[in-house]
Amino acid sequence: MEYLCLLFAVVAFWQLGLRYHRAQRLKELSQRSTAEFGELKRQLTNRHVIVTHLADSIPQSFDPKFERQKLREISQTAEDSLSTIDPRKPSAEKIREFVCRERELLHVTRELVNSIKTEDDLSRAHLVTSCIEGLDRANAQIGDHTSIYNTSAIAYQSVKRASFLGQRKRKDEFTIFDIQD
Q: Which residues neighbour 81 within 8 Å (Cβ) at sequence distance 6 or greater?
């Protein structure tokens, strides 16, 4: 009987240790995901600024081929949508809304960059070239941070599902980002 009580005590302590370890791991993954999401938001905001600068750097003579105001509005809408997302408690609905706006911005920006590349004088303009290069760097950084954030979010979800702590679905789970089409 004493051995049975001792066995139950050891199992109970082991379970407590396991739960504590999982809770600490979830806390660490949550902090990592939150930090990376904050960095991703910063990089996305940077891209919005570069897109606005690109629109401003294009001469008025190019306007018949390009809707400057439309690009600014789409960029501002994407930025507004991004600013509503709280990195500590990202809402899947707000992220989906933002991704929709960001994809629209990416589409219009790609069309603009492709149009610029067909215009020799415009594609050689220093300010325009600098904006396009900055946009390429920003896109690469966003891709890197998206991958890191998604990896952290997937790890968080996996640990949460594997633990007894994750039996209930909570709204504070991290949502996977898929911006690129």
A: 94, 97, 98, 101, 102
Tokens in use for 137? 């760097």
Distance, CA of 177 to CA of 44 (rounded, Å): 12
The counts of H helices and E strands in the chain are: 5, 0
pLDDT in tens, 143-177: 999 999 889 888 888 888 876 554 555 555 677 76
Q: What is the DSSP string of 135-164?
A: HHHHHHHHHHHHHHHHHHHHHHHHHHHHSG
pTM over 0.90: no
For residue range 3-58, what is the model confidence (pLDDT) as tens digits? 888 888 888 888 888 888 888 888 898 888 889 989 999 999 999 999 999 988 88
Question: Please, how many CA atoms are within 13 Å of residue 105, restricted to the half-sphere of its CB?
Answer: 30
Q: What is residue 58's DSSP assignment?
A: S
For residue 94, the tally of other CB atoms under 10 A from its CB is: 16
